[in-house]
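Reopening this ticket.

The earlier resolution said the output was attached, but the attachment link was broken on my side. Pasting everything inline this time so it's all in one place.
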Amino acid sequence: MTKTLLAEFTAREGAEGEVTRLIREYALKVREEEGNLAFDVYVKEAAPRAYWIFEVYRDEDAFQAHLNAPYGAPFNAALIPLIEEDASALTFLEPIDRT
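Inline output:
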């Protein structure tokens, strides 16, 4: 079964450009992962410092491989000082219709 989640964070005021640059670079790497099915980055139209990343992985193993990718820790280390939260808030999703 696929592993689907929504990651959310808010860029600090004035850090939006750097956050966007970092997430774009990171997204290119994640999208190349064998088990990644989607990595779509959004900002809220009414709150452009609020980022939402919709992620889908083939299965739990693919998600674990994503978590252990060598570029993940450096990305998070660079991102944390630029966002208001201590880390991205993750919401795991399940489909209501599995047919």
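Reporter confirms the inline version is readable. Residues 16-31 form the longest helix (16 residues). Strands lie at 3-10, 36-44, 47-57, 89-93.
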